[in-house]
């Protein structure tokens, strides 16, 4: 059983795919080194990340997909699905064999159909993050938000918030994956959530003096526009799934209590 191992990065995975195409030995699996248990029967090949090789794979894919393939592969990588690596490898094979951009719309192909379905799920998650990120202003002027999306979509939402809040410093932390995206009025950068400075931002003691008042106002507005007679919980949950409520200020049951304590 030929298993290719990589370092867990997108570039590392593309380097694996480059090596597979070079050796023409198809893999039984592609796995992250250190996260997978291999058996004695496995023939494991560790592939080092090579940025030039990764770039060559992306250029070749874009050449035959009207520059849509590279972005699609990256979004698949962010899905973090257990079979994501083999799915990306198979998709590269399909694109390179077809040499026709219409292959991305050929849903009669089971792999293309599955990739399209995953891409739609990621788009839905990105859309929800655009709507459900709730910033809280800290006393140092930084706007701070926490998210825990099902897919690793933080790299896909930065451009939206950079464009929308270009005149404010903000930080969005993905708690599930322990990293964040910070904007300093100039550019966005990824940061490690284990950094001590980020942990300090999470302290409610550093919240801006007026933040609790604004949170209460937002909560009052949210509940005042709700018409009880037209309440439809099933529809509400479909548009605002309960797994996101943890970080939605208007769904926080302790806003009023915290406001009373502060005053």
Description:
- The protein is of the alpha/beta class and 263 residues long.
- 46% of the residues lie in helices and 13% in strands.
- It is built from ten helices and eight strands.
- The strands form two sheets. A five-stranded mixed beta sheet has the order 4-5-6-7-8, with helices on one face. It has a three-stranded parallel beta sheet with strand order 2-1-3, with helices on one face.
- α1 crosses α2.
**Helix percent band:** 40-55%
Q: How do the strands of the widest beta sheet line up side by side?
A: 4-5-6-7-8
What is the helix/strand order? EHEEHHHHEEHEEEHHHH
User: What's the total helix number?
Assistant: 10
Question: How does the helix and strand content classify structurally?
Answer: alpha/beta
Approximately how much beta-strand content do the residues carry?
5-15%
Q: Gyration radius, to the nearest Å?
A: 22 Å
Q: Profile the largest sheet.
A: 5 strands, mixed
Unreliable parts: 259-263
Q: Span from first to last CA?
A: 66 Å
Report mean pLDDT, rounded to a whole number: 88
Tell the overall outline: elongated
Annotation, overall tally of beta strands: 8
